[in-house]
Amino acid sequence: MIAALIVGALVLSDEPSCADCHPAIVASYAKHGMARALAPMTPEFAKAFSGQELEDHASGMSFGLLEREGRLTLIEHGPGPAEFGPHRLERAVVAMVGAGLMDRSFVLEHVDRLFFAPVEWATGHGLVLAPHQELQPSSRLGFALARDCLDCHTDPAPIDAFPRHLALGVEWNGIGCSGCHGDASEHIASGGRRGTITDLGALPPLRQHDVCARCHLQGDARIDLAPPGSAPFAPGDSLFQRRATLVTAAPDDEFGFVSQSERLALSRCFVATDGALTCTTCHDPHESSFGRGFARSDAACASCHATDRLPRTPDHAADAQGSCTQCHMRKSAPHDLRHVAITDHWIRTRPPAPAELTTLRVHTAGEGPLTRFRWLQATPTDPAVDEGAIAMAEVHLHRMRAAAARFDGLRERVDGSALARWSAYHFYRGRAYEAVARADDAIAAYRTAIQLEPDTVEARVNLGLLLALRGDPEALTVLDRASRIAPAAESPWQNKAVAAATKKDLAGYETALAEALARNPDLAPLWIESARVALGRRQLDVAHRAATRAVALQPRLEGAWTLLGQTLFFAGDKTRARAAFEEALRQDPKDADAARGMQLTAK
Fold first, then answer.
1. Degrees to nearest 5, angle at CA 149 with 226 and 480
2. DSSP secondary-structure letter at 375?
3. pLDDT in tens, 563-575
């Protein structure tokens, strides 16, 4: 049933005008993986996925899918102390990321925010752990699905907001015609007049590559170089004047799932043709390549490597049955996704044998050096900007000491460079300095970022926290502005709570906690704080409700069971209090407060 749904053709509801003049192309493209790169969770899919279940031993949770009245729900459940019953949380599954030909991720929507589900569907394997859940078992239902994650799966891009996973402006459809041909409104209004839409075949080869590389060059980090408010990338633009993509400086046999452009650029065939070997040389962009055979790619190879001039070796014998790509482009497991094997686009005379995935990892470079990607070194750049982009990528990869050192080395080169006018550069610089406990340098960097871009919420939130920790009254001014710019965000209010705590302003602290939880009621640590405040005021019912909410959201949150036990003990329920303290000690035998609670309940 699921396989039938996955391979079925979908209708491009956003492209009826294109279909009026190009019905055959639109019908063919509707079966393409790009057209189905993002899709709503339909009742048909909900019924097909319903009943699937998977246990995650690392987190201690099980995840199941259940259809109700045409809607799919993800259910997280796990054991709990007998006195409190089993753990259970539910989240709505609203969409799917990926065409489903190899893998499909599920999108959860909760409290007006989007999240990746901890499980996904792998063709031939069924329900499997999502990579983020395998790498970070504690992420569970809270792994944010940011706008950046959807840019390559839909057009137009969702609204850029803060926090970046707000469920705003997302249309659950895949890549349409405009994704590769640009805005077609003038073309349609003119009745299809030539020159009113981008013809990819008429672009120079490297500009053709840019269109594909927008999504098929993931790298280890992408740094946006376009100023805030810039028009989105359009076919024909130079991608790498708008974006710095950082890749491993020492490519080897391991590659990521979305590395096609990066790996192709390593090929001698690509270099020797000055990039004229484009993606469309081998792939028809309007037809799925799955099940199409190798005739088109073999013909492309033969255009330069005539079969009558190939070495007369057993591999190239006249009766050989294999295709060129089967021998010279190995199919192997990427390092960042299990249960799939994809074609490595680094074309080599004798590529290594296919590899099995052992250790899952996100970044190709690992701990190794990064470099800025270019086509044939053909994109002119400022060396300082290259170095700055690498420093920002180091932050993205959480290499904070290396990033701080690199930023230090750039200090004298910033003046006169684009870096001086680049708010994001100074924000990343602040993050690196903050991480290595250089608060003065971080504050100065955040101030520069705000001066260049007054409405940058991230810099205001971070600056406000550093000022709050110092007891600086300016913290509230900075954070007030952040909360006005991003009224749905909880982080300005979380940091206002810190500012109130440093001033011993209990009323202000309670207000800030309440405002943060009103915006995002899934913040278990804040429920713990609310419970502590209420317990201190002997508001036992309020404290108990807050502690219960924290335990329900994060059963393994440090201190949660201990605090719940305390609220129950003061309410006179020693039996359940003791059970809560026992669970706290089971999770952390060194919890002194829980041990003390056990002694009190024994009296």
1. 65
2. S
3. 999 999 999 999 9
Strands of 370-372's sheet, edge to edge?
221-224, 243-248, 370-372
Instruction: Write down the number of H helices and E strands in the chain.
Output: 28, 14
Count the alpha carbons within 13 Å of 51 in the hemisphere toward its beta carbon. Answer: 4
Tokens of 100: 């489903």
Q: What is the pLDDT of residue 13?
A: 42
Distance CA 278, CA 290 (A): 19
What integer best gives the mean pLDDT of the chain? 92
Confidence (pLDDT) at 86 = 96
State yes or no: pLDDT of 126 exceeds 90.
yes
CA separation (Å) from 97 to 28, 287, 382, 385? 20, 20, 36, 33
Structure-token match 């499997």, residue found: 128
CA 493 – CA 480 distance, rounded (Å): 9
DSSP string, 447-461: HHHHHH-TT-HHHHH
Contact 511, 499 (CB under 8 A): no
| Distance (Å, whole) CA 72 – CA 94 | 7
* Global confidence as pTM: 0.93
CB distance 205 to 274 below 8 Å: yes
Q: Nearest Cα to 467, choosing from 455, 453, 482? A: 482
**Residue 73 backbone phi and psi in degrees, to 5:** -120, 135
Q: Provide mean pLDDT across the span 230-241.
A: 89
Amino acid identity of residue 275, one-letter, is G
H helices within 374-490, ranges in order? 383-396, 400-410, 423-435, 439-452, 457-469, 474-485
Burial of 526 (0-12, 13-18, 19+ CB in 10 A): buried
Determine the Cα–Cα distance for residues 116 and 110; give it in Å rounded to an integer: 11
Nearest to 150 by CA among 96, 211, 204, 198: 96
The larger pLDDT score, comparing residue 220 to residue 168, is at 220
Whats the size of the chain, residue-wise? 603
Say what the pLDDT of residue 574 is.
Answer: 95
Q: In this structure, which amino acid lies at residue 153?
A: H
Per DSSP, 352 falls in state P
Q: What count of other Cβ atoms lies within 10 Å of the Cβ of residue 315?
A: 12
Would you state the structure tokens that stand for residue 466, as one six-digit string?
């550093």
Closest CA to 465 of 506, 445, 495: 495
- Can you tell me the distance from the alpha carbon of 176 to that of 157, in angstroms, rounded to the nearest whole number? 12
Alpha-carbon distance values, 116 to 113, 142, 287, 328 (Å): 10, 8, 29, 36
Residue position matching structure tokens 């952390």: 588
Q: Which residues contact 257 (CB under 8 A, 6 or more apart)?
A: 218, 334, 336, 337, 340, 342
85 pLDDT band, cuts 50/70/90, is very high
Rounded to an integer, what distance in angstroms lies between the CA atom of residue 448 and that of residue 416? 15
Place of tokens 């993931």: 218
